[in-house]
Task: structure prediction
Amino acid sequence: MIDVFIKNIVRFVFLILLQVGLINNIELSIFLSPMLIVLFIVLLPIETPKWLLLLSSFLLGLIVDVFMNSLGILAFSAVLVAYLRPFYLIITAPRDGYEKGSAIGVNDYGWSWFLRYAMALTFVLHFFYFLLVGFGQENFLVVLWQTIISSFVTLLLITVHQLFVLKK
Amino acid sequence: MKAFIKFIIKYHFTLIFLLLQFISFLLIVSFNTNPKMAFWSTANAVVGSFNQSISGINKYFSLDKENEKLVKENIYLRNKLLKNYKKNKITTQEIKDTSLYTQRYSLISARVIQASLYKENNYITIDKGKKHGVKEGDGVISSEGVVGVVRLVSDNYAVVLPLINKSFSLSCQLKKTHYLGSLIWLTTDYSKSSLLNIPSHIPIVEGDTLLTTGYSLIFPTGEYVGTISSFSQKEGESFYNIKVDLGVDFRSLSYVYVVNDLLKSELDTLQEKIND
Result:
């Protein structure tokens, strides 16, 4: 239990450092700002208390917001993703429910389930982030393309992460 | 009371969610309207020193380019030195009267420690703040031209709203005809911008230069902004649609100057008197 707790805190810190130290500095196009921090929300244990799920996501978004001068925008998007997560998990639950103590990831749930789940969360986060950042932007298509391209790259990074933790 | 607590416990997930979304919403709004939010930006001391150490690594890779820029500026300034000019006017006596001149602007040099190019709202963070005399609303220029305006200031850092931010507009004038227009960033390209409000009966040419105006109390008169790259006019519209190549290369920007208007308070009080 404590082990899982520490693991998630380390992930929290590491993902923020990776996001603001490396990923945000790779600037190639207006369509590309992958928010890998969503991986933290994706990988939180299923049994995480709901208030902690919301609060940690809020904090995660807020810290990265300060680094990007987009105060509140990522926090808003991350909290929304955190709120929707339990509903998604209920809808896609296996017939006999989630196994106690199982960790979200390809090891316990397989590629197809995990990637669909990660994609849903990633997409929602990016969509609301770009929508709020470009508020007043008449061209909705730009927001959509930004969401699609950045989500795709984020998913690619998540896949790479999963390949690393994959047990053969 | 019991029912109330029961209600809170039952719906705590949604209630916390709504509370956090409300806080986020307040933060978004206040960041866009309140100029005192420096703590919540890259002007934050911790964030600033983090960015500074990262940009310290990047700095070494652009040393060559930076030197070249400085040499260019040196040559430009040296050419302006009086000793390079031969006197054409024949005078028998020269009076140097320093009371004829008052210094209006002083410059503070600053290093760019963080900048974004591909956001809709780009910002630049510099390593000078309140401590060094940077104030909110000060102009920022580089050797290549106008960069932007200081938006948030903390003790050691400042966040600059550059020309390539959607919420920035700069009044500037055409060098040839002296007409005024406003420069607004409507593209997504960090090297281009648009000039609005130039009426279509005014003759303009491609390649004309855009300069800051003397009306602006932020920049010195005649600072280079950019050149007109192309213009068009839609049927029935009374204004041109003008595309501008920006003078500053935001990609390679690493040193800037913050413009301090020494006469600003004097001008401000004067204008306040008129308004009263």
Q: What stands out?
A: Chain A touches chain B at residues 20-21, 24-25, 27-30, 32-33, 50-51, 54-55, 58, 61-62, 65-73, 75-76, 79-80, 82-83, 86, 132-134, 136-137, 142 (CB under 8 Å). Residues 106-133 of chain A form the longest helix (28 residues). The CA atoms of residues 106 and 162 of chain A lie 7 Å apart.
